[in-house]
Amino acid sequence: MWAYLVRRLLQIIPILIGVNIITFALFFFVNTPDNIANIHLGGKYVTQEARDSWKHQHGYDLPLFFNVEANGLDKVTQTIFFQKSAKLFIFEFGVSDTDRDIKQAIKERYLPSLLIAVPSFFLGLMLNIMVALILVFFKETYLDAWGIFVCVVLISISSMFYIIFGQFLFAKVLRLVPISGYADGWYAIKFLILPILVSLVAGLGPGARWYRAIFLEEYHKDYVRTARAKGLSDFLILFKHVLKNGMIPILTSVVSVLPLLFMGSLLLESFFAVPGLGSYTMDAIHDQDFAIVRVMVFLGTVLYILGLLLTDISYTLVDPRVRF
């Protein structure tokens, strides 16, 4: 097991290097340092002197990958790639293009993102699994047919509709919760209820339908027929055997959600004015602050890879056959 973990950890390094290089290339081959300077100086008619001064202050006057004018290691270290991207591997995020400390901003914003993402994740997972198990238990009945119909309807509706309709119904008409905003301490709960509720409803359709397909596939396997022949009830078979054997594909699908626990939800945080990492990223994209976007892409990659590693470890706990 330890040899496997070490091998997987070593595989993370080339993946992160590759993602880092691709992200850097996308930013600086599409947007040159001159274009970035023009964006932040506020217009097309910027003097070359002002542009050069801004690039020098923010480290964009260096060569991209290799500095032919430097000596020794400075040929590599005195480059935009090393100063802006390579330092991400030691979690040195530096400052944004608007001269704000990125690491400090992440420390201030990660908690609101977690307060939305963690309840949404666990409550949504339990809700989707329970609905899927109920549909499988009543398979080929009117309840199952109507459940599938409702899931398809929920899938067909855009997430934007749930956000806008939720704000209109619960905040404007019923006045149960604030329409947007955030507060510190326990006062934050009233601002988090609506985003969490919207997240649960938006994820119910695809989640329940996906888990239903997994459990239904398990339900028709030989071990289920054997258990039924031994006299076990359908309820016991479904909630004890089918649920356990369906955990591997469930764990696989859960991995894609793990980065959102820390990175936040872009739409939810932006529309509900929650000062989390999701709205932080959206603001950076809107302001074309590429320093922040690069950091958030890097963190998202790290979290996703760690999620894959945790999934592999959890496989061994759910299915002992994986150990061999």
Task: Describe, in plain words, how this protein is organized in 3D.
The protein is mainly α and 324 residues long. The protein has 2 domains: 2-90, no CATH class; 105-323, MetI-like fold, CATH 1.10.3720.10. It is built from 16 helices and no strands. It has helices at 2-30, 33-41, 48-58, 74-77, 80-84, 102-137, 142-156, 159-173, 189-219, 222-229, 234-245, 247-255, 258-263, 266-271, 277-287, 290-318. α1 packs antiparallel against α16 (290-318). The longest helix is centred in the middle third of the chain and has 36 residues, at 102-137. The relative contact order is 0.12.
Descriptive tags:
mainly alpha, MetI-like fold, single chain, 16 helices, 324 residues
* Alpha plus pi helix count: 16
Number of domains: 2
Taking the sheet with the most strands, its summary is:
none
What sort of overall outline do the alpha carbons produce when their principal axes are compared?
globular
Q: Please report the distance between the alpha carbons of the first and last residues.
A: 10 Å
| Structural class by SSE content | mainly alpha
Strand content: under 5%
How much is the radius of gyration in Å?
A: 25 Å
**Series of H and E elements:** HHHHHHHHHHHHHHHH
CATH class of the largest domain: Mainly Alpha
